[in-house]
Specification:
Helix content is 7%, strand content 46%. It is mainly beta and 112 residues long. Strand 2 and strand 3 form a beta hairpin.
């Protein structure tokens, strides 16, 4: 493993596309970071549940919103908006969706 590593979202290691969502992924010394751009109208349950095969998202996103507005709802009843400049951790068992007419741009860490 190198002592330092950097990635470039303009030239990512991987591009991932789903309906209303694009993800650029860079790999850094065993962890990954993603830039997520999500279009208005996107809702995890509506757009990803069938692909994932689960009712609730079972990932654990850790990130920061750069622009746009997210809403998170956890299956324990916890609910909150995530605004630009706010960092977040949403535990497995949640739904996320875009609020309003502006795309959400967020950066997230992907843990191994």
């Amino acid at each position: 493993m190198k002592g330092a590593s950097k990635g470039d979202f303009n030239h990512p290691d991987e591009n991932i596309e789903f309906e209303k969502i694009s993800i650029q992924k860079v790999n850094l010394n065993g962890i990954s970071m993603v830039k997520v751009t999500i279009q208005p109208g996107w809702n995890w349950k509506d757009h990803m549940s069938d692909i994932a095969g689960t009712e609730w998202c079972e990932n654990r996103p850790i990130g920061i919103v750069i622009s746009g507005k997210y809403h998170a709802k956890h299956n324990d009843g916890t609910e909150f908006d995530i605004l630009p400049g706010q960092a977040y951790v949403v535990e497995p068992g949640h739904n996320l969706w875009v609020v309003g007419d502006e795309p959400v741009v967020a950066y997230e860490f992907i843990q191994p």
